[in-house]
Amino acid sequence: MKSSMAVCVLFLSLGAATAAPGDDAAKQQEMLEKKFEKQMSGATLVGHFTVDGKTNGKPPREERYEIASVKKLEGDQWLITARIKYGQNDVNVPMPLNVFWAGDTPVISLTNLTIPGLGNAFTSRVMFFEGRYAGTWQHGKVGGNLWGRIEYADQKSETAEEQ
User: Fold this and answer.
1) Contact at 8 Å (CB) between 134 and 126?
2) What pTM did the predictor assign?
3) Is 152 helix (H, G, I), strand (E, B) or coil?
């Protein structure tokens, strides 16, 4: 009787031990997602981008994306509302897209997305880490790289003298 009771206790403790890591991983992921949502809502991406084959000895072009809000929908689907200045256009656009995770690092992934007022076939992969972002972009046959820093509403940007 004692040995069967000991076996039951052993199995119960093993079951609890194996269930806990999954629960911890789910909680950790939820914390990462909430952190990403909070940090990116109201943030501004300030950086540069290149156009493949178009250097002409000029420095990379400057870009700026103001993120109004970031909200997780379901699974890997998120809704990111951003102010996008592209060519002569300046629009606020809610964009449903995927956010995948490389460990603790979020990676935005969009493929052939149509952005109202800007066009179709926008594809991009952008990762965010430690206050910076980097990635690739494609619009039809034109593409390049992008990178920069993430500024937050409570953080003032550096002046040209400080840079």
Assistant:
1) yes
2) 0.76
3) coil
DSSP assignment of 41-68 equals TT-EEEEEE--TT--TTPPPEEEEEEEE
| Averaged pLDDT for residues 34-44 | 95
pLDDT at 107 over 80: yes
- The tokens for 74 are 């379901």
Instruction: Tell me the H-state helices in the chain.
Output: 2-40
Helix, strand, coil percentages, rounded to 5, for the chain? 25, 50, 25
Is-contact 150 45, C-beta < 8 A? yes
Closest CA relative to residue 78, chosen from 95, 91, 92: 95
- Per-residue confidence at 54, pLDDT binned at 50, 70, 90? confident
Under 8 Å between Cβ of 93 and 115: yes
Cα gap 129→107, rounded to integer Å? 9
Among candidate residues 144, 120, 152, 146, the one with its CA nearest the CA of residue 133: 146
